[in-house]
Amino acid sequence: MTIKRSKRPIAVDLFAGAGGLSLGFEQAGFDVAAAVEIDPVHCAVHHFNFPNSTAICRSVTDLSGSEIRELAGIGDRDIDVVCGGAPCQGLSTIGYRALDDPRNQLVHHYCRIVDELRPKFAVFENVRGLMMGKHKAFLNEIVEQLESSGYSVLKPYRALNASDYGVPQDRRRLVLIAARHDQALPHYPATTGTTTVGEAILDIPNADKFDVLRNQDWVKTKFSKGSAYARRLRGEESDPSDFSHPRKWDASLLTSSMRTEHTDLSIERFAATEHGKTEPISRFLRLDPKGRCNTLRAGTDTARGAFTSPRPILPTHTSRISAP
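The chain above was modelled as a monomer; its predicted structure follows.
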């Protein structure tokens, strides 16, 4: 299959990272024709995850819409959607907030590329802090820029919670939707129900039982049967709402699970923490198998004072969840 010949709608993902938005759009029935990501490691991971997509390891600041079309082999084909979540460290409600943070100017380049590519639709995802206080003015600038390019923006814009759409995590994000003037504006999607932490991860073996995970992050093992949700995640059960292309992979691999070495004292504190409560010393949340996970962050650079973000404690083991 090549995207150039596919009859599926096509998308271009800006600030693509390893492919979170790309995966969502592919599962919804799109082919991701191009993904722009400046970080070479993330770009390589995206290429691995989406072999039929063109991964462009460039900054959007010096990339034009015509270059994206040429590099991805799109030609003059009408693009269905441009999606993207520009880096938003300067806008997050966590930590220092500043409208003049230079990283926030990447948002304007998102709007510029939308104007140059002229997709039918544009989807912009970002922290909900954009909807608060003085940041509303910055959000209004984004809306005005899209409208001046001939797009209608769905209003009132909303922050959607991933937990309302089957993700076992309390994660609220601004989702801005715009439609070219010759297209009808869609509605925000209806909620699809919730999933618990237990349904998502209780089938996963305890990483602390594998010595090999002290030096590597994968091991072959057996999973318990788990919930239908977990079986679908492992590819052992079909999901009628998933239109993504099938991948070849080994469902017996436990991956991204290098062990975290905790002191005996930390393990005692973790074990004594009730489900849904925060351990008082580390401030780590002990996950409730019947509840949802708190918002997980990838971390921040050293300029923001923290290299890694806190990870919650597993509901059934005395260690924190593993991180890729």
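The two ends are 29 Å apart (CA to CA).
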